[in-house]
Specification:
heterodimer; A: mainly beta; four-stranded antiparallel beta sheet; B: mainly beta; 11 strands
């Protein structure tokens, strides 16, 4: 049973460029959340996707956008990259049950993004 | 507001017990979690507790929740060198399932 998988594992971009990160949820999960973890900090919630729609959003600018596909996989897009966007980007998946997300969230290993 | 705080470092000897503490501010927490992160890796869910519980035990792990003081702790019995990692406390709030609010993490160092 595959867990949450993310690609690529590492990425180097320059300021102003755009980047797309990908996530496949754990088998049987239908909800995907994205988090940004800066060096030495705890993860910060970016947004959550369920039924191909953004359901919740954290305090991130519109440069951060996402998408969820019918197979529940998801993409995170970041436009006009800034140096401060350098971080580990984590994807987490869970299952909605009874209209509420399940309490167990499983994380992937992340994509390390470096912006030069 | 939403805030989760942890002490940054803890050092113990192999075989001792480790206690990692966490405080949170929002009284509408529903679930509280402990995650482990090893270098270069994602987050591993260790255990979680529903906010109406006081204690949960899972093998070497014991979670204590004091809802009145908004204090959560994780006790690791018989700590091993393989337990060296960063431990994150996190909460979800009522009606915001899936949005985790994390602390800064506690770096646990286990010395042989």
């Amino acid at each position: 049973d595959a867990g949450v998988t993310q690609s690529p594992t590492h990425l180097i971009k320059t300021r102003g460029q755009q980047v797309t990160l990908r996530c496949s949820p754990k088998s049987g999960h239908d909800t995907v959340s994205w988090y940004q973890q800066a060096l030495g900090q705890g993860p910060q919630f970016i947004f959550q996707y369920y039924e191909e729609e953004e359901r919740q959003r954290g305090n991130f600018p519109d440069r951060f956008s996402g998408h969820q596909f019918p197979n529940y996989s998801s993409e995170l897009n970041v436009n006009a990259l800034l140096l401060g966007d350098s971080a580990l980007y984590l994807c987490a998946s869970s299952l909605v049950a009874g209209g509420l997300p399940n309490e167990k969230l499983f994380f992937g290993s992340g994509t390390q993004l470096s912006v030069l | 507001g939403e805030d989760v705080e942890q002490s940054l470092f803890l050092s113990v000897r192999e075989g001792d017990s480790s206690v990692i503490n966490c405080t949170y501010t929002d009284s509408s927490s529903t679930y509280l979690y402990w995650y482990k992160q090893e270098p270069g890796a994602g987050l591993q869910l260790l255990t979680y507790i529903f906010s109406n519980m006081d204690m949960k035990q899972d093998q070497r792990l014991t979670v204590l929740l004091n809802k009145k003081d908004k204090h959560l702790s994780l006790r690791i019995a018989d700590t091993q060198t393989g337990d060296s990692a960063i431990y994150f406390c996190a909460e979800t709030l009522y009606n915001q399932g899936g949005k985790l609010i994390f602390g800064q993490g506690t770096e646990l160092s286990v010395k042989p």
